[in-house]
Every structure is written in structure tokens, then in C-alpha cells.
Amino acid sequence: MEHITLLLGIVIVTALVFDFTNGFHDTANAMATTISTGALKPKTAVAMSAVLNLVGAFLSVEVAKTISGGIVNEDGLKTEVIFAALVGAILWNLLTWLVGLPSSSSHALFGGLIGAAVMSMGWSSINGGTVVTKVLIPAIAAPIVAGLAATLATRLTYRIGRNTDTKATAKGYRAGQIASAGLVSLAHGTNDAQKTMGIITLALVTGGVLNPGANPPMWVIVSAGVAIALGTYLGGWRIIRTMGKGLTDLQPQQGFAAQTSAATVILASSHLGFSLSTTQSCSGAVMGAGLGRKGGVVRWSTATRMFVAWGLTLPAAGLVGAGAEFLTKQGPWGIAVTAAILVGGSAVIWALSRRDAIDHTNVTDDEIRQGGATTDTEPAGVVTTAIAAVTPPPTGTVAASTAASDDPVKATTAPTTTTTGAMADPARPATV
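-> C-alpha cells emitted (432 positions)
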């Protein structure tokens, strides 16, 4: 480490800051469903996730190799480019965290790196084949595969347990949910901590400290694992609320199916060196689990905002990374201005988040604050209404309707209530 220059040291610290934001940004991937179903208390859940993220960082370096020697050409790459890429990734992570959207930290990093590299050396610096096969295709396939797997797993789970007492099996499913959440945390550490390892390794190669193609040194692995674990323990409560309450209402059976499906997809991709988004995999699994239960629905307005954030992540982070690289090319003063923008922007976003603070004490509340006003969970949309319309109603609703039809007086006086979006969860108020 004696060859590390001041600029290289700044890049390493910035990479670890990104890793920290990655940790709290993606805590929801593993623990949102576990917290929302009550399987674990919020602080216990994030502490467990932090430990397993740290362990997962030591399991593989395949994804790190993809980033450090696959997406961009190392020849002619300057350390300032990596710094600019990290600025774009961090600011996008913080912005999406502020609005509670589970966007991809991975794609924010890739977008920043691609934008900065193109600004520095042109499009020839990008390995297009690697970007398509190991970034874009997994980005599309992962949520679809995880969602389909979660839908099938949820339906199978309910079919197997259809003749069992719900209360008797709830404890077992909660235990399974805790185990599957631990598996997702382990998978997240294996996949996402490696991205920071790859970025630091790439910086060390550009700084002449390591030879091209070298594996991450042990100190890089340890520091990346610790940074993502600390960020995870901090807890990204705003995104946990969106995934645990905003997309759908989950029961323990669904939480177990969603997390098991997501963990399987993430671990398989890590083994193959695909740097997919754990956020997209877990979000797809949550939506699949929501559709897999009879009467269960997905709040498509929230899902649509999330899809838009996914689509914007690569180009938005790329534009910020390109702008940061334009400044860093101007010399030391440009690097200083870029650093000031990063610190100032982060401070502004943090200050805005304090206006509507969400933490472990209110993350499971049924009400969601939007723009300073408190509102109930959003009403069902057109797609949700259509799905609910062809779903058999709960037994209580059928019985009540039958009784009303047998008694002409009750039939004419009984109020008519539509329980769209709440039919499977009596605790939730109906949408009239």
C-alpha cells in the first residue's frame, strides 16, 4: 500500500462510501418482508443482515473480476474516471433512497462508470459485449425469473398447507422466513460487496499498484465487507417500508417464498459472475409472491414508479458520472469541485430526509407520509381491480352475501362494500 497516492486514497475512500450507501440502500432486499410480516423486530433484522453481508463478502470474487476487468478497458483508464463514476453512483443512490424507491445500486455504479469512461476516452473504452451479457440481460431476466419462481412457490406453499391450521403453521413459516432472509443477506454480500472490491481493484490497477487481471487483495475484501455491513446495520428504512408495505401485503408464507426465490437467483448469478441487481431480483420476487396468493394484489402505481427508477438508473448515473469526469479532467481544482458537489449534494439530501424521518420505530406503520401529509396506503389501481375481480372472495364475504340473498329484507337494506385490494387481509380497511 506504500504506492497509493493521495488521489488513489480518495478514490478508495469514496468507493467505501459507495459501499456503505449500497448497504443501507439494499437492506430492504433481505429484510423488508421479514420485518413487514413480524417475523423479526426491525433492529434485530438489520443486525442479522449486516453480519451475513460481511460473511458473504468472503465467499467469491467472480463478480469483482467482471467489474475490474470486464466492463471497461483498463488501458488508458485514469484514476479520476473511477472517482467520477463513484460520484454519479453515490448521488443516485441517495436520491432514490430519499424518495423510497428500491433502485439498483449495481446499475448506478455501472452507469457512473460507463458515463465517466465515455467522457474520458470515448465509446471505444466500453466492452459492449460484456455490458450486454453480464449487465443488461441479467437486469431484464432476474426480476422476471425471480417473480415467476416466487409466484409458483407461493401457490405451491398455499396448496400444500390448504388443510392445515393457519395459526399452527405461521410459526414454522416465520422460522423459514428468517432462514431465507439470512440466505438473501449472504447472497447480497457475495454479489454486491464484490462490486466495490472490483472498483477498488480497478483503481489499484490504474494507479499501477496491481497488475491487470489481479484478484482483489485481502485488505480490499475485508474493507468492502465491513463497509457494506455497517451500511446494512444503519438500515434503509425508507426503502424497507416501500418493499414491505408499498408493493403488496405479505403473509409469512409469501415472505418465505419470495426470499427463497430471490436468494436462489442471486447466488446462482454470483457463481456465474453475472453482476445482476439484487434489488431487482428481490422486488420481482415480492411482486410474484403478491400475485401468487388468492386475493393478493400488487400496487401497480408503486411498482410503476419503481420500474421508471430502474430504467433511469443507468442513464442518470451515467450523465452525472460524465459531468463529474468533465470537471475532473480540468485538473486539481476540478477534482476539488467534484468532491464539494458530492459532499454538498449528500448533505442536502440528508437534510431533506429529516423532514419526514422514517426509522425502526415507524417503518411498519400502515400509514405512509407523502409530501408532509399522512395518507393511508394508496388505493387499488385498474390492474389490481381486474385481478381482484376474478379472484374468489374470502369465505366471510361469501357467507354474508348468501345470507343477504336468502333474506329479502337484508338484501335490500344491507350496505354494499367493495373490498378491492383488501379482500385477503381483514385487518386492512376496504377501498370503497
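The first helix runs from residue 6 to 36.
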